[in-house]
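Continuing the batch. This is chain 6 of the set; chains 1 through 5 are on the previous pages. Same settings as before, nothing changed between runs. Recording input and output for traceability.
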Amino acid sequence: MKISALILLLSVMTITSSASPPDVIESLLTRLESKRASPSVQEAAAEGVLRRLLPFHSYSFQFKIVTKDVCGGKNCFLIENYEENDGPEIMIKGTTAVELASGLHWYLKYWCDAHVSWDKTGGIQVASVPKAGALPRLKGKGVMIQRPVPWNYYQNVVTSSYSYVWWNWSRWEKEIDWMALQGVNLPLAFTGQEAIWQKVFMDFNISKDELNDFFGGPAFLAWARMGNLHGWGGPLSQNWLDQQLNLQKQILSRMSELGMVPVLPSFSGNVPEALKKIHPSANITRLGDWNTVDGNPKWCCTYLLDPSDPLFVEIGEAFVRKQIKEYGDVTDIYNCDTFNENSPPSNDTTYISMLGAAVYTAMSQGDKDAVWLMQGWLFYSDSAFWKPPQMKALLHSVPVGKMIVLDLFADVKPIWETSAQFYGTPYVWCLLHNFGGNIEMYGILDAISSGPVDARTSDNSTMVGVGMCMEGIEHNPVVYELMSEMAFRSKKVLVAEWLKAYSRRRYGKTVDQVEAAWEILYHTIYNCTDGIADHNTDFIVKLPDWDPSTISASSFGKQEKMLLPFHLSPGRRFLFQVTGSKFPQAHLWYSTNFVVDALELFLHAGNYLKESLPFRYDLVDLTRQVLSKLANKVYVDAVTAYQQKDAKALHFHSKKFLQLIKDIDLLLACDDNFLLGTWLESAKALAATPSEMRQYEWNARTQVTMWYDTNRTVQSKLHDYANKFWSGLLEDYYLPRASSYFSYLTKSLRKNEKFELEEWRKEWISYSNKWQSETQIYTVKAKGDALEIAKTLYKNYFG
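Output for chain 6:
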């Protein structure tokens, strides 16, 4: 180890500081402000956001960067009338371009009833914005909105694979605009890091060919980065590496122009096998298996360089320095999750402190002002290991203020409440919400509207931000609209009233039936309080891989009834049931009958809103949700019939289940945002050669289906983790699977023989492997009338 690195490591382990967390955070903020683009650059960046959002209003607003002194010492935006004649109509001031964009969004929402959402969740609604020259005026001197906490963090380390993997600059530009409008100022920036790693490891005498087995394929890079797997879906071409590096430079440039602070990756210890051969005395261990079916070393059991080894600091420093050389001095905040789903080899607190100090030393050798941003997922997922002494040892292994923790699952399992505010370490209250990019209507609006406020105002709070850490994006726009607002809300939000305004903004007008429907959805779908992490386990997209004859129907469908009250309107009080069972089953946390009522209200509102793209998206999504939950019940009915040896009933219910898959596919085909073809074509568009095109398509198909490796009789342990309700995927993947499964059940009854589970698995795995390697083209254009099809399906199944 270099002498300077050794001295720094020892100093990190022994340092004490009299500075309090608020003092060091303020110092960090001041230092980061000095890196920001000039006011003129930021104002121009905000004007660019406006032009792309409202091209006919590009001269209606004026933007101006102001100091924190204007905002009472905090970051804020101010919205005022522009008083001079023959000029813009509205003046928006803010401490950064993000605040300027957030101020623009706030004005459009609360003075013009406009709505901004991802394109794939219905897009924007700006028809309600008056023409240029007629924008609404503000009363008095206008408004000032302060951030109650400095940061609004965005992304999960796996979002880059589940959502962004196939994006080009055009799509990234839209996303960065969305971030700015939502107030995001601390985004993760992980694109292109493999090109940096290639340069770093080549400096350590590892060849390009030796790295082919180290990097994962494009759709699996997140897990290769974390050391969960290697080689799966790869290798990466030089075209991919160069393309992604150039894209990252565009991303970072735009983020910096807007005054954002990007979070860059750092070294977590994950190294190629070749390093062990070059440095045989280095403390490099091979990790255990992560979710392969047979422990195949071709994919599993990656190599980890122990943070205590001198080489760790050398590589970590080199990686940070190489990023600074490529991108410039754009940040001081670096993400590292060395212990994410990988427990340290010892729970000795001294050892853990040493590991944490080494990780930080590797960062700070490359950037003397480095701050370690760490996902707090490990404290939840591996709570048996991370007891208070071990948590303190890790959190206190770096100087005060040099670590920020993401309380990743605070919307469901907040760690801040049970860890004495992370034992004095600054943290960000985060919404996790989504796993695998699954499409399911789900949320806990009350937790979002109050959780950040409760955390911030609690005794001895060390909260410094809010964040959105979903594994996949482009779903449940209501959840992310509310969560984004919490970056600027100092008080709890009255959700019922907020939803009325939300539906009016989203659809462009007030419709009584829609308001009533959203009131139901608030108390059902968006009121999940069972503490279960919501992976979509509906039987259509995750068919149970089991022999129904081994578990009784009563055990499978057993319900623990719990009565929960909610109020839809004065004088009407309802009770509904929540189901639970020891046997794994589809997640259900609300009364399906009430949600069917909400769908009926949406259908009635369709006569007034059928031209609204956000309404069409919500109608299709809600109809899909209702039919999918119905299919869960039909599946249980079919399994029950099989167990009761009722062939006629089995035929009836299995046929109905298959018809539901066909009908949902038909429904999803009506909306551009629910098409498999979009995902596949965006993957192929990044390819430079025919072989790359086949590889990228295989990556795209595999991630949303089998995910990982199989053998002849065992499905991937991660099959359907990233399941999607997409037209094309239902018809050609989920439908054949269910059809084959029920055929084997029927055959078992007809011949009075044991259900041939292993034979079915062989048949299905063979089919899946073939489908993953196919190149059939799927449409990227919607067809059909969503409202009419939704009405027909409602009548067929509920009328």
